[in-house]
């Protein structure tokens, strides 16, 4: 028994030392993350600039149905926060939360209703129809969009549902906000290009844009096996192809008008474009790797306007096939 007790007291200092070393190691890693241990470029990219996602599709739909682009944007903001894959418990889908049956009635297959171009067109047609039915009365049109024309007719105005009453108020507020973003009656598209960019790799989003681990993640991570092709999201010119801290090898493409896209974590041996080279939308530029500060094979992809980061998911088509 005494030997066991003596051995315990001999072992205790060792355990304490191991514990202290482990805690110090964790602290070093944690501080490294807080101080910028994630992806970083040394080219002065920083900050965040909001835009109007899907501006090109919104403008076209608004012109087609003779309504304000600001109204469509306001509805999308309230319905889905510009998430094309939004899906409600009632079954409504897409940017403007259209029911599959409604989509079919308009002429779009239910399984393609989520696509931004189809969903925005369907939603634009619906709200334009309500505005016509209610002779331009925005409150009634929004109430009908949310609760259905039958309920507006039943209650002789905005239905007494808390959700619908709040919806009418909130969308009206958003409408005023988006009116201020109009230039000549429409939204400006990013860099003069359609704001829907091609998905740059066939994979799944493994880390979104936004704050993580105490710092800003200024792009999205697309996980896929090593060797998966990476393509240019739009036409442009390669303005950087080289090593960058945290990125391994990075490619930056200038699309004009201040719009650039950034691709990271490739191996140099897989890069098939050079600095100064013109590239086309969908053209292969490299392959997915696991280079730089990376915990697994993936593409780190960024969208920047005048050096300011944008959420790529607001500008990308939602999958590889629809690029």
TrEMBL record:
Transmembrane portions of the chain: 7-35
Domain Transglycosylase SLT span(s) in chain numbering: 57-160
Residues annotated as domain M23ase beta-sheet core: 215-312
Single GO molecular function: metalloendopeptidase activity
UniProt keyword annotation of Signal present: yes
InterPro entries in alphabetical order: Cell_wall_metabolism_enzyme (IPR050570), Dup_hybrid_motif (IPR011055), Lysozyme-like_dom_sf (IPR023346), M23ase_b-sheet_dom (IPR016047), Transglycosylase_SLT_dom_1 (IPR008258)
SUPFAM superfamilies recorded: Duplicated hybrid motif, Lysozyme-like
Keywords (A to Z) from UniProt: Membrane, Signal, Transmembrane, Transmembrane helix
Protein name according to UniProt: Transglycosylase-like protein with SLT domain
Taxonomic classification: Bacteria, Bacillati, Bacillota, Bacilli, Bacillales
